Amino acid sequence: DAKTTQPNSMESNEEEPVHLPCNHSTISGTDYIHWYRQLPSQGPEYVIHGLTSNVNNRMASLAIAEDRKSSTLILHRATLRDAAVYYCIGGGSNYKLTFGKGTLLTVNP
Amino acid sequence: NAGVTQTPKFQVLKTGQSMTLQCAQDMNHEYMSWYRQDPGMGLRLIHYSVGAGITDQGEVPNGYNVSRSTTEDFPLRLLSAAPSQTSVYFCASSFSGQGPNEQFFGPGTRLTVL
User: Fold this and answer.
1) For B42, which of A55, A89, A99, B33 could close a Cys bridge (C-beta 3.0–4.6 Å)?
2) SS3 assignment, position A98
């Protein structure tokens, strides 16, 4: 799996957009970029994944740089329920996800 | 669907005791795995299975055994518990082990070894 670098923590205000960055400069051409999040005292949950093109789903958008060395998870309108640790994972072509420490997102009311 | 279920939710063991953490899924997923999460850390893969009868080691397999006799169940056995195994254990499953398949995680088992 590619090594990923994320900020330890970020803060946002409720109902504002949040951009969570991730660097994955060693990612290979076949590695996907996955995002999971972990709410307090729960197991991780899938958010989104992508390979080259930007991706949208009901939870978030994933913007992938053209050189694929970085990506940004976008939450369009943060809610208090979005407060969690967000993990960016590069890889998954061999199904073994490697979780780093992630970014702790705090959402202020 | 119940999704991925884990029992027990909490467990306290004494050093040297053995126990089995249970994991079950009702989504007919081929791939199942066990992770542990220590305080302030990400998850680390212990063992995984790509189908009934097939298991393999992950990043931190020592001290743990697994078997997969059915598609639904993937128990994790602690052979002789040690304080270093105090952690939160998560079971996960996905439709396939290949490609970017969404993994579904259980709620976790919090284990303390005294």
Assistant:
1) A99
2) coil
